[in-house]
Amino acid sequence: MTPPVLxxxxxxxxxxxxxxxETPLLRCDALDAATGARVFVKAENLQRFGAxxxxxxxxxLALLSPQERAKGxxxxxxxxxxxxxxxxxxxxxxxxxxxxxxxxxxxxxxxxQAMGAEIVLYDRVREDREAIARDxxxxxxxxxxxxxxxxxxxxxxxxxxxxxxxxxxxxxxxxDAALVCTSGGGLVAGIALALKAAAPRCQVWGVEPEGxxxxxxxxxxxxxxANPSGVRSICDALMAEKxxxxxxxVAQDLGIMAVAVRDQDVREAMRFAFRHLRLVLEPGGAAxxxxxxxxxxDVKGQVVAVTASGGNVDxxxxxxxxxxx
Amino acid sequence: MTPPVLxxxxxxxxxxxxxxxETPLLRCDALDAATGARVFVKAENLQRFGAxxxxxxxxxLALLSPQERAKGxxxxxxxxxxxxxxxxxxxxxxxxxxxxxxxxxxxxxxxxQAMGAEIVLYDRVREDREAIARDxxxxxxxxxxxxxxxxxxxxxxxxxxxxxxxxxxxxxxxxDAALVCTSGGGLVAGIALALKAAAPRCQVWGVEPEGxxxxxxxxxxxxxxANPSGVRSICDALMAEKxxxxxxxVAQDLGIMAVAVRDQDVREAMRFAFRHLRLVLEPGGAAxxxxxxxxxxDVKGQVVAVTASGGNVDxxxxxxxxxxx
Lengths: 325, 325
Prior knowledge:
The structure is a homodimer. Chain A is of the alpha/beta class. Helices cover 46% and strands 15% of the residues of chain A.
């Protein structure tokens, strides 16, 4: 398999239009004042099922053959990909089994169940989710919908980048920089493909949690390296073991950069989004905003696009973050 | 003064375009499933300064004469109108004094201060805010920007209704019903003027807190009656003493109806918006959604527009509502 190219993203955009929302690109005075930049927030927390994952899932499912769709699909996911595959499978009349870690946020498990998918829980530390999914797939001839390392998935996520370019274009602007929440790398690769086509000099940053900075270390090592197991992060959505093969190829080809944020930065970004954007962001969905607000890169005077990539967070955690330090 | 008409709303829309956001009209599967209707949420919490009030304030300020603008303005408000007048005055280079109740949410006082306005706090129970504002206005020749009872303000708020009609129209739909958070009545009157023009049979409901149901009682009595003083509600934004003269005239003319919600309904609607829409709503901004979710009217099979009119709420209250019963 090879990474998608711009024409694949444009085809994906037409293909998935009935199944996704064109999410708004928001700005606010407080964000511009805090950064000295012109900042635009791509509110993918307002996407169907509460995260950008609806895009890649729709594209991957729509590109299955009729025979494959009749046999159904399997997906493994920490949460947002799970709900997205379950939801899009339901919309397309496809049977879905979802393999989720037993410690996923209740909001994400409930979202997935609400879509009518069959859920198989596994132990994140002791079991190999990919092996479980492959076994389930082999049993019944189901297709696996991978969370990031597939050209159809990357092309689907990249439609968020096409929308950013279009929405900025309607304001007469181009992105100088883009900050993208990053785990397996499907979103950052897709957005880089879209934005570099519209603005070749745009600097694209993948933002990952401290202790899960496999992307930064992989770029430095010029080969994919894994995260150590067992490191905790508040960003449950950004805990892939390592960046995908295809996203890494795109990242090297397009010169994507990496930066890491602390849990504390993420908490502050969630509070900022609550107060100034009136958006509910989950920790992993606030990582890019956290990098910006923590001043991790110099963007003064620039047009900056930031992904708010998801908003599925349990009430208790959100309340604790709002009222905590 | 007479109420505005459709052409005033259309003129306001052009006039205030540089000063407001076209907010998204959102839908979600869970809301349609819960109601049996096709529900669209007008997310005015994503409006500048966090509430629809940015619209009326911009229109009123833009229609002042150059001499009036040079002398500055005064506004009295429980919070969202305060921040909106302060923010739009700053954007247009007009000096503003804002009269706010001392028990207004900290988020709203802070928003207003951040806009550089001078703030005068008063005691909601013991002092008459309109008299304070009039005195301040008389001293320095400042113009009062009233919160709802003015044709320019109503026309500005009505631009939210124009957008709803346009956004539904792009989906090939017209509103069968609209639910609008209501206090002084500027928003419900403006939205009714816009929606009844696009769909004359559209039923428009003003939603107010129980114990503050002056609008319902006024419609029944065929004259404006006041709320008893001292009744508490979680909806700090919906505590006007009574509906305005002009909004009441529009309501009688267009057959607007009224319904009341309990604090408990509002809390549940805020939790629903958090979980399923990933939006931060303040209590007053969730009243219309609360009426819908509590089944206050039969909307099965209908196209329903619901205003989510504001999102300025203190962290502690939001956390308590998320985790409370």
